[in-house]
Amino acid sequence: MRGFSSDYLRRTRRGMWGDREALELARLGDAESVLDVGCGNGEFTRVLVEETDEADVVGCDFDLSHLSDVRESLGVPVVAGDARSLPFSDASFGTVACQALLVNLREPRHGVDEMARVASDRVVCVEPDNSSVCVESTVAGEPELARRSRRRYLEGSDTDPALGTDVPSLLRDAGLRDVSVTRYEQELVTEPPYDESDVTAVRRKASGESFRGRRDDMEGDEETLDSLRDDWREIGREAALQLSGKEYVRRETVPFYVVVGKK
């Protein structure tokens, strides 16, 4: 199972749940207790707290540093635990939920089986299809370069980055019934006025630092990946020029699937 920094989680989950209509089928308002598995730094935990009606919400993650963030920022109980072997007894929580967890597990069915085991009412999974990400940009060539990079990432990953569309079958295989699905699109938008994270992202792109952080997960020989890195630096420099003139606009759309199954 992969581990992620708080900065990474904040950046990739920015723009999530401005519109929460897709969560309606989860019936969070009826929940008496909710477990957020793989809660990270608490971005989805916060949504669960806000959408439930005085329910007991608990965060669970194997990374202790994330748990400290959640406890301090949200004031909810947190428990250290592995999604593949949750430290809870059967039917401990009414609703068990996760966001972008299964996509990072080599054996996601184990995670779903565990979520189903500790749930007494329903399981809610919010997972992306990273193979269908769409990038639009004012920098010519960035959308195509993003597609090339994503293809390398998909081929090099030891998990299934496109898992989202397969989650319904995983829930059914775990014995859950009445499985329902809603598609939700996360939009990550960079546009004026830029915030600090926008400026940092462009700077890291221009320096090659952003690519270095993803290189180990990509398929390809050294020459191919070096060429990809150089292309990203060129794109980053052009983005920096546009950003200085308040002309840079980038929109990344990530499809997520909200999947709910009942016990």
Automatic annotation (TrEMBL):
<dbReference type="GO" id="GO:0032259">
    <property type="term" value="P:methylation"/>
</dbReference>
<dbReference type="Pfam" id="PF13649">
    <property type="entry name" value="Methyltransf_25"/>
</dbReference>
<dbReference type="GO" id="GO:0008168">
    <property type="term" value="F:methyltransferase activity"/>
</dbReference>
<dbReference type="InterPro" id="IPR041698">
    <property type="entry name" value="Methyltransf_25"/>
</dbReference>
<keyword id="KW-0808">Transferase</keyword>
<feature type="domain" description="Methyltransferase">
    <location>
        <begin position="34"/>
        <end position="119"/>
    </location>
</feature>
<dbReference type="InterPro" id="IPR029063">
    <property type="entry name" value="SAM-dependent_MTases_sf"/>
</dbReference>
<keyword id="KW-0489">Methyltransferase</keyword>
<protein>
    <submittedName>
        <fullName>Methyltransferase domain-containing protein</fullName>
    </submittedName>
</protein>
